[in-house]
Design brief:
By secondary structure, the chain is an alpha/beta fold. The chain has seven helices and five strands, in the order βαβαααβαβαβα. The chain has a five-stranded parallel sheet, with helices on both faces. β4, α6 and β5 form a beta-alpha-beta unit. The two termini are 16 Å apart.
Amino acid sequence: MTGKKTIYLAAPLFSEAEQEFNRKLRDQIVERGFSVFLPQEDSNDTIDMRHDEKQSYIFNKNHKAIDNSNLIVAILDGGSDVDSGTAWELGYAFANNKTVLALKTDFRTLGSEGIVNLMVEVSVDALATDVSGLMDALEQHR
């Protein structure tokens, strides 16, 4: 046992840009002494796995990783609304009393109603608008 807190990184992972951002963020979090479960790499979430009808394998591995994590970091970028998989992971984590730290760097908002959907925004413990702010929030949960 490493004694490091484990973070589940919930994020869109379907484009090369999203995957690269996730890896870069994971590396920054690891540099700060955390362990990170990154679904795009740690649960074999690939086109081949999805086409081979192994979706339940991916679901179960991610589900268990959330259960075993100390914190959830949720990336809320992706346009005017949150990625549906990320929203599910965030909701599941909230329902299981996990600490959820969110990052939304996309400056498009829902207007005066808030930064993201009300149900998402109110369910997170901290919502940063840049990576530096997320790192500050992580330090408070070391």
